[in-house]
């Protein structure tokens, strides 16, 4: 029997998530992973690397709970929000029996994580404005344990209507968990559902330090939920999910000073987004720039595949969204520095000559 034959069938047939780094490229303008464009400095202070770290580092949990307006018992820290997605499937879904549901176009890891564990995936196509198709969800809820909703949604950039989220939460009460993925919430903090946890015991919120906190390389995320959910996730999480250096830097990033710095970065990105959007709307090959509440914008471009390749060859790496449902002709552009924005603008203007 070959190694391939020894592997689980669903893993043999699995298409892995195509992360920005897996897709490669040799550019010098990286606008395909929704990262903050410049590095933030931290001083590593722990010298106890001979010891295992805490499973849930106290300073990280307490600082994040204070930031999110929750109790420490409602916070779990993990290796990015991606691990939170997987922990929920491991804790709540029986392979071959239960299902997860999500609404394309959206983040690809919901599908990959479920398939990895042999859990059925169900999709309900979002409406034309990329809001939830609530009737479609209701029709497919039987047997579903987890409903993943990304808000603001990646890659489209819009907030999911709060009233629709309430309807969904009422629809799923005593049936399934609703997982609100808020990876980009720092760019629109008024839209968070974290304050709804007291009202909805089956609500879970995912967060990350990868975006506005400028710590994508740290791989540190959070799951916010009621204590009953957190206790179940603690049963399936790895013994030491965060290394000591990660916990040290995360705790620093979540101090009052760190949060002030994060909010200053958000102001910078929002101003840069406005500049990029205004200029893109003046370019002939740009058919539409969609509204965004995030650190990226979705743009529909004439001959987008050719334009994507042309910019790629110039060292400007964007994210092609053509294969996503309803996103034909669309590219996603991370908001970078002013110089990076100008490189994109100039390159797209040259495409129309």
Task: Give keywords.
13 helices; 353 residues; 4-stranded antiparallel β-sheet; alpha/beta; 37% helix; globular
Q: How would you sum up this structure, described in words?
A:
This protein has 13 helices and 13 strands. The chain has helices at 3-6, 9-12, 20-23, 58-68, 80-92, 109-116, 134-139, 162-172, 227-236, 244-253, 256-280, 304-313, 338-351, and strands at residues 29-30, 75-78, 99-102, 120-123, 144-150, 177-181, 203-208, 221-225, 286-289, 296-301, 316-317, 319-320, 330-334. A seven-stranded mixed β-sheet has the order 2-8-7-6-5-3-4, with helices on both faces. A four-stranded antiparallel β-sheet has the order 9-10-13-12. It has a two-stranded parallel ribbon with strand order 1-11. β9 (286-289) and β10 form a beta hairpin. 43% of the residues are buried. The mean pLDDT is 95.
Q: Which sequence of strands runs across the widest sheet? A: 2-8-7-6-5-3-4
For the sheet with most strands, the description reads: 7 strands, mixed
User: What is the overall number of helices?
Assistant: 13
The poorly predicted ranges are none
Shape: globular
| CA(first)-CA(last) distance | 58 Å
Give the DSSP E fraction (strand runs of 2 or more residues): 15-25%
Helix content: 25-40%
Count of extended strands: 13
Structural class: alpha/beta
Report mean pLDDT, rounded to a whole number: 95
Taking Cα atoms only, what radius of gyration do you get, to the nearest Å?
20 Å
